[in-house]
């Protein structure tokens, strides 16, 4: 059954999610975005000023939405984010190689396909980073649990509200501190 497209409402960047510190390694460079893809997507954005914004956003469909609406909303959210950020130099995403369930794998694949097509269409560099690499950088253990990643980013002065946001912050820190490999 086809659904009627409804306007997508996307909130602008929330200034209450600004991390008080700045990126001391590369201020003035293009904005970088890190994503933990999923129905609840964690995100962390380093602006050209060096400010770091972070949060999580839900793309859970309503009961009246068709199966693709979460991806339509994800695309609209990305477009708003890139406008608010003044462009993007690169997007990094958590590259998940194994999922606990078929539904999770399908949803991740949909978000990944939407993201990569969106980046290709706009000529924005993107790179997947293995989960173990992110965890090893944040905690010194490639198989660290969610609580350890949350504790690691909290120790760095961030206040993530959930593990999705913490993963995105850890990924952004990896990209900044290792130069991320995308140029």
Strand order, largest beta sheet: 1-4-3-2-5-6
Radius of gyration: 16 Å
Main beta-sheet annotation: 6 strands, mixed
- At CATH level 2, the architecture is 2-Layer Sandwich
CATH H level: which superfamily?
Ribonuclease H-like superfamily/Ribonuclease H
Number of strands: 6
The CATH C-level name is Alpha Beta
Q: Rough shape? A: globular
What fold name stands as the CATH topology? Nucleotidyltransferase, domain 5
N to C succession of SSEs: EEEEHEHEHHH
User: Between the first and last Cα atoms, what is the distance in angstroms?
Assistant: 43 Å
Task: Give start-end ranges of low-pLDDT stretches.
Answer: 1-28
Q: Can you summarize this structure?
A:
The chain is an alpha/beta fold and about 180 residues long. The chain has helices at about 70-85, 100-120, 130-140, 145-155, 165-180; strands at about 20, 30-35, 40-45, 50-60, 90-95, 125-130.
Question: Could you characterize what this model shows?
Answer:
- This protein has 183 residues and is α/β, with parallel strands linked by helices.
- It has a single domain (17-178), classed as Ribonuclease H-like superfamily/Ribonuclease H (Nucleotidyltransferase, domain 5, 2-Layer Sandwich).
- Helices cover 40% and strands 20% of the residues.
- The protein has 5 helices and 6 strands, in the order E-E-E-E-H-E-H-E-H-H-H.
- It has helices at 69-85, 102-122, 131-139, 146-155, 163-178; strands at 18-22, 32-36, 40-46, 51-58, 90-95, 125-130.
- It has a 6-stranded mixed sheet, with helices on both faces.
- A hairpin with a 3-residue loop joins strand 2 (32-36) and strand 3 (40-46).
- Helix 3 (131-139) crosses helix 5.
- It is globular and about 40 Å long.
- InterPro entries: RNaseH-like_sf, RNaseH_sf.
